[in-house]
Amino acid sequence: MLKTWHTWILKENNLDREVLRYCSNCGHIVPFFDTMVRRHNSNGKNVYRFAIYKCVKNHTWNEKLATYKAYTDHREVLVTETIEPQIELPRLPLQQYQEHGIQEITILIENVEGRFRIDKLLAERIDGWSRNQVIHRIKEGHILVNQQQIKPGYTLNAQDIILIHMQ
Question: Could you give the number of structural domains in the chain?
Fold first, then answer.
């Protein structure tokens, strides 16, 4: 059986991203804009990473970007965050894979910043599959995450391994 392997880094494009939300200080729904400032909090077990958003009146709202397990030898210190150019994830040409005899696709999710549902992500990245087809294949067990069957709305995490069986 021929297999192919991909590694993806998932990062939401937050540049000029406007989020409509209720601002408790303003008293109504207003647009919040990403300040590109990131904050980390921890509770001893987990480290949480947040993006700080502000409305036009400078009221803040924090969006949770990621959760990491804390450990005692944690020495990495993020001084500043650089804005890297957004790298487009590759599209998966399933018809070409089938023509070459590839029967299994493995995707390692190396890093995740933001929220990505597996059904939406795969529907966007796989040529020829609609979201309904992706959902159907997830429910039938042809798409697994970490060797386990998941729900179509599963939110991807760093180090998840997506396994797609071609049928």
Answer: 2
Single-letter amino acid code for the residue at 77: V
Nearest CA to 167 among 138, 132, 145? 138
Q: Is residue 37 part of a domain?
A: yes
Cα 155–102–165 angle (5° rounding)?
Answer: 35
Cβ neighbours around 56 below 10 Å, total: 11
Verify that 111 and 137 share a domain, yes or no.
yes
Q: Which domain holds residue 94?
A: 2-13+87-165
pLDDT for the residue numbered 40: 87
CA distance 58 to 27: 14
Structure-token match 């804005």, residue found: 83
Task: Kindly give, in sequence order, each residue whose CB lies less than 8 Å from that of residue 82, ignoring residues fewer than 6 positions away.
Answer: none
Q: Residue 158 CA to chain centroid, in angstroms?
A: 8
Q: Are strands 161-165 and 143-145 parallel, antiparallel or unpaired?
A: antiparallel
Sign, CA dihedral 61-67-69-74, equals: negative
Give pLDDT < 70 ranges for the chain: 13-16, 70-88
pTM, entire model: 0.60
Residue found by looking up tokens 């760093």 in the block = 158
Domain with residue 97: its CATH number is 3.10.290.10
| CA dist., res. 68 & res. 149, Å (int) | 23
